[in-house]
Amino acid sequence: MSTTQSERLRELLEPLVTSHGLDLEEIAVDSVGRKRVLRVVVDSDTGADLDRIADVSRALSAKLDETNAMGEGAYDLEVGTPGAERLLTEHRHFVRATDRLVKFQLTEGGELVARILRVDDEGVDVEVPGVKGRKATTRRLGFPEIAKARVQVEFNRKDSKKDMKEEEEA
C-alpha cells in the first residue's frame, strides 16, 4: 500500500472512528490470494466492546462504498482491536498499559520486563519484579531510553487489590 493511499484512507476514516469515541491505531491493506483485506485497528481508553466495533465497522463500510476509496476490486473489511500483546508506540498506549507487564527493549541495549505504574510526558515509572525471593524494585524510564515496548500476556497474575480485599474480609 502506498503512503499516499494510506494517508488518504486515514484522512477519510479517522473522523468516523473518532466520532464513535475510538482512536484509529492502524490501517493496513494486504493481498490474500486475489482478494484484498483492509484491516482497521481501533482502541480507546476504556476499550472497544463488540457493539462499538460493529457500529464503527458499519460506518466505515458505508463510507468506503460511498467514496469508492478502495477502488473497483473486491476487498474484505476487518475492524478489530490491537490485541493482547500490543506494541506500545504512542503516549496513550503507555497510559492504557498502566498496571500491565511490559517487555522493554532499551536504546542502549538490553531488555527489561516490568509493570507500568505511572506515565507522564517524560517517561514511565515501572516496577521490576523481584527474582529469587527478592522484593520488587521501582525504576524510572524516560521515553528516549525505550527503543521498543510490548505488553506481555499474564495468565496467572493475581489481582493484588482484589486479593488484598479478600484477605481483609477473611
Keywords summarizing the entry:
single chain; 170 residues; alpha+beta; five-stranded antiparallel sheet; 30% helix; 34% strand
Short account of what is shown:
The chain has 170 residues and is α+β, with helices and mostly antiparallel strands. Helix content is 30%, strand content 34%.
Rg from alpha-carbon coordinates = 20 Å
Distance between the termini: 58 Å
| Fraction of residues in helix | 25-40%
- Mean pLDDT score: 87
- Major β-sheet strand ordering: 7-6-5-4-8
**Low-confidence parts, pLDDT < 50 over ≥5 residues?**
161-170
Number-wise, the strands total: 8
Give the helix/strand class.
alpha+beta
- How are helices and strands ordered from N to C? HEEHEHEEEEEH
Shape: elongated
- How many individual helices? 4
% residues in beta strands: 25-35%
Largest sheet: 5 strands, antiparallel
Summarize the topology.
Blueprint (H helix, E strand, L loop, with lengths): L2 H17 L3 E10 L2 E9 L6 H18 L7 E6 L10 H6 L4 E6 L4 E9 L3 E6 L8 E6 L3 E6 L8 H10 L1
Parallel strand pairs: 2-3
Antiparallel strand pairs: 1-2, 4-5, 4-8, 5-6, 6-7
Helix pairs in contact: 1-2
Provide an overview of this structure.
The protein is α+β, with helices and mostly antiparallel strands. It contains 4 helices and 8 strands. The chain has helices at 3-19, 50-67, 91-96, 160-169; strands spanning 23-32, 35-43, 75-80, 101-106, 111-119, 123-128, 137-142, 146-151. The chain has a 5-stranded antiparallel sheet. Strand 5 and strand 6 (123-128) form a beta hairpin. The longest helix has 18 residues, at 50-67. The protein starts with a helix and ends with a helix. The model is unreliable at 161-170 (pLDDT under 50).
